[in-house]
Design goal:
Helix content is 40%, strand content 15%. With 598 residues, it is of the alpha/beta class. The protein has a six-stranded parallel β-sheet with strand order 2-1-3-4-6-5, sandwiched between helices. A six-stranded parallel β-sheet has the order 9-8-7-10-11-12, sandwiched between helices. A six-stranded parallel β-sheet has the order 14-13-15-16-18-17, with helices on both faces.
């Protein structure tokens, strides 16, 4: 029996080690779907409830596995639905390959059903590599290049395969003019290091500093040991961009935690007071949270020369692999005997964690959302994978969750899309079926798409050695992050028609899908609920009713933000009195006297 093009595509994916394809069927990929059946579902066809979820699942899988994620969709509407998840991969630099069906070649240009100009549709999101396969012997090169480019550029790529071609006989390229062969599915990585002279200049800048700060992002993930060596030599404190939250443990006394609007007071103080800044593997965009532009001398290390030097006026820019470049830099750094700067950093870190604990334990109506993540931090397994969504719950993930050991965590960092946490969690379970996964999700994101993916969780849980996938819903009936942005950045009161969500029982809906659920409406019950969920042998949803007026106070509230909040209250915000009380209570914790340990 001859091999069809669709059979060859799946065979080539298997050769690349692809174990699953996150997908949703449609007649534009019927040939490929039939090939999955002939291949006895190898690679596995993981059916989502919507193509956007497939793209998010592939992105989550790629983030947590380090391998390429593959998603698949039909032509027209299916292809269009992939875009948001693929843009998430593009902006967070994640290797994902989208395989997309298209109208039969004989119908192209005839305004046929579901005919969309896919080249135009994907030309931006898959700008690193986009190809339409129109004859069988374009394979394997087209698919191989898509995978190699995705891995090399850490970006999404797309391969478009018309429906009729999928069912044609596969013919490999020949040794002939205008035919392009390929190589066996493999890729060998090299590491690049900046020029020696530039590394020496960087060492001079860092050695001249007396108050060194290090900012790390996800690009430092493979260089954690080297970052710690630099910090030990220089007495530096280390702040983390949100995508780099899991690079270093928060139990280290000189790690100040997240930076930015969602960051910690200790990170704000580190940047405010430093005289030297080393940025490793981060493209953190909010320069107002970095040192004043004339305050610090700065060095940046990044593998992408196009991204370097664009967030802060860095004096030395080292383009190269973070681990290899730091390894070359370390022998040139001088050990700083004066530890007064490090002592100050550690004092600020201790005070921050004490403040956070006090804020998390404050009373709220019904439950304090900060305590949800604080209690999780006290009991989360060392090998857990945490996914977070975009919303007010992101604040508590960024500030209250203490990363340690081999824990992993991520979210839609640059696109900041709602609705990523649950599909990310599914992708994470396929990457690490032996590890517990926890999704921290606002009720807005849950209503947007998370509820549907509970069905996917229930369907595939039998494949996971550790079936624990906990979906924690911050149930406050409010699109809370935007509500606070309206107040704090625009001086506008909450507009209930846009901000208030329909009140539904997420626990009841979860049970309808076959997922066990726990309802919590009191802060003191949060810890026991986590204990029960973490002790389970199956997926569980936590439906925690939270107080929407617990304020996500930034590490440093500007005068303008305070004025805007006042204007919102005076303009008749419906939660004015309660938000004032909660705001004063939270802010007061920052003003408490420091303990003797400080």
């Amino acid at each position: 029996m001859s091999m069809q093009v669709a059979d060859y595509v799946l065979a080539r994916l298997r050769e690349w080690g692809v174990g699953q394809v996150f997908a949703y069927p449609g007649d534009g990929i019927n040939g490929l779907v039939a090939a999955f059946g002939r291949a006895e579902n190898s690679p596995r066809f993981v059916q989502s409830r919507h193509e956007e979820m497939s793209a998010f699942q592939a992105t989550g899988y790629a983030k947590f596995s380090g391998n390429v994620g593959v998603c698949m969709a039909t032509s027209g509407p299916g292809a269009i639905h992939l875009l948001n998840g693929l843009y998430d991969a593009k902006l967070d630099h994640v290797p994902v390959v989208a395989i997309v069906g298209q109208t039969a070649r004989s119908a192209m240009g005839g305004s046929y059903q579901q005919e969309v100009d896919l080249q135009s549709l994907f030309k931006d999101v898959a700008s690193d590599y986009l190809v339409e396969v129109n004859v069988a012997n374009q394979l394997p090169n087209a698919l191989d290049r898509a995978i190699r480019t995705a891995l090399t550029c850490r970006a999404p790529t797309a391969v478009i395969i018309p429906a009729d071609l999928q069912e044609e006989r596969y013919e490999p390229p020949t040794h002939a003019f205008k035919e392009v062969p390929s190589s066996p599915p493999s890729i060998s990585w090299s590491t690049s290091v900046a020029a020696r002279a530039e590394i020496e200049r960087a060492a001079e800048v860092i050695n001249a500093g007396t108050k060194v700060a290090v900012l790390i992002g996800q690009g430092a993930r493979g260089a954690a040991e080297e970052v710690l060596e630099v910090a030990e030599l220089t007495g530096a404190g280390i702040a983390k961009a949100l995508l780099g939250k899991d690079v270093l443990s928060d139990d280290l006394p000189f790690v100040t935690g997240s930076i930015g609007l969602l960051g910690t007071r200790a990170s704000y103080e580190l940047m405010r007071d430093c005289d030297t800044l080393l940025i490793v593997g981060s493209n953190f965009p909010y320069s107002q949270f970095l040192p004043e532009l004339d305050q610090a001398r700065a060095v940046q290390i990044d593998r992408d020369g196009a991204s370097i030097g664009m967030r802060y006026p860095t004096e030395v820019n080292l383009v190269g692999d973070a681990k290899a470049t730091l390894r070359a830099l370390i022998p040139l750094l001088e050990h700083r005997d004066d530890r007064s700067w490090r002592d100050t950093v550690e004092q600020n870190v201790r005070h921050w964690w004490q403040t956070l604990e006090h804020q998390s334990m404050l009373g709220a109506d019904p439950a304090n959302p900060m305590r949800v993540v604080w209690e999780l931090s006290q009991r989360v397994p060392d090998n857990a994978v945490i996914t977070a969504d975009s919303g007010s719950s992101t604040n508590w993930y960024a500030r209250c969750l203490r990363m340690r050991a081999i824990m992993r965590g991520s979210l839609s960092g640059t696109l900041a899309s709602m609705g990523a946490a649950v599909p990310y969690a599914i992708g994470a379970k396929f990457a690490h079926p032996d590890r517990p996964v926890i999704a921290l999700v606002g009720d807005g994101a849950m209503q947007m798409n998370g509820l549907n993916e509970l069905i996917t969780i229930h369907r595939y849980q039998h494949l996971w050695a550790d079936r624990r996938l906990i979906v924690c819903v911050f149930h406050n009936n409010d699109l809370n992050q935007v509500t606070w942005e309206l107040r704090g950045m625009g001086g506008a009161p909450k507009f209930e028609e846009s901000q208030t969500l329909p009140d539904v029982s997420y626990a009841d809906i979860a049970r309808c899908t076959g997922i066990e659920a726990i309802t919590v409406d009191n802060s003191d019950d949060i810890g026991p609920a986590w204990d029960r969920a973490l002790a389970a042998d199956r997926p569980i949803l936590l439906d925690i009713r939270c107080d929407p007026e617990v304020p996500p106070i930034p590490p440093h509230a500007t005068t303008e933000q305070i004025k805007d909040m006042g204007r919102a209250v005076l303009a008749g915000d419906p939660g004015a009195w309660h938000l004032l009380v909660q705001g004063v209570k939270s802010k007061a914790q920052e003003l408490r006297p420091r303990g003797r340990a400080d």
